[in-house]
Design the sequence.
């Protein structure tokens, strides 16, 4: 995602529509009532991470860090304001989650206790040491994805898996260290 193409309103709208669809199971038409969900405890962390990213793209790093810190203190989720996250991200629960990826694609679902980051201490945020997640990925509770690996589109990572190598499109990876246990036809996801 090109940070210059980031539209806060457009991304929040897409996030809200996906959130309501996942919660209700039915397609939701955009309306004024949809925007009232911005304050939901499942959606407010997304709002804060989008605001922090916007501030970061405007080169207001200290303000972005303050918004990110607020997200951590209130919701228990630490998201780097430098990490571009595609439309439709969903955090069913946030406690203990650390997002320090290079990038995350569209329609990602990331459960609680997930860590996306470098294998070693990386204060400078070197992007080549961070994971890249494709579109429509699901990361199970407690999973750890470490290093400069790639998770392909439609891939799934099981709960508590420790991922140290790339995962191909449509695959399911589980275990410690994580291994691909079943490739999936990407069109059947």
Sequence:
């Amino acid at each position: 995602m090109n940070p210059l193409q980031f539209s806060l309103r457009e991304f929040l709208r897409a996030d809200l529509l996906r959130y309501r669809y996942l919660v209700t199971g039915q397609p939701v038409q955009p309306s004024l009532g949809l925007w009232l969900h911005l304050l939901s405890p499942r959606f407010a962390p997304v709002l804060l991470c989008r605001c922090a990213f916007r501030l970061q793209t405007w080169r207001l790093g200290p303000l972005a860090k303050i918004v990110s810190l607020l997200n951590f203190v209130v919701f228990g989720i630490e998201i780097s304001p430098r990490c571009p996250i595609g439309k439709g991200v969903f955090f069913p629960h946030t406690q203990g989650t650390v997002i320090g990826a290079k990038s995350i694609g569209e329609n990602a679902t990331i459960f609680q206790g997930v860590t996306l980051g470098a294998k070693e201490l990386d204060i400078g945020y070197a992007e080549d040491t961070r994971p890249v997640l494709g579109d429509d990925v699901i990361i199970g509770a407690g999973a750890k994805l470490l290093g400069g690996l790639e998770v392909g589109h439609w891939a799934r990572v099981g709960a508590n898996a420790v991922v140290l190598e790339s995962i191909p499109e449509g695959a399911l990876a589980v275990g410690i260290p994580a291994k691909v246990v079943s490739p999936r036809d990407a069109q059947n996801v």
In short: Confidence is low (pLDDT under 50) at residues 185-189. The first helix runs from residue 8 to 24.
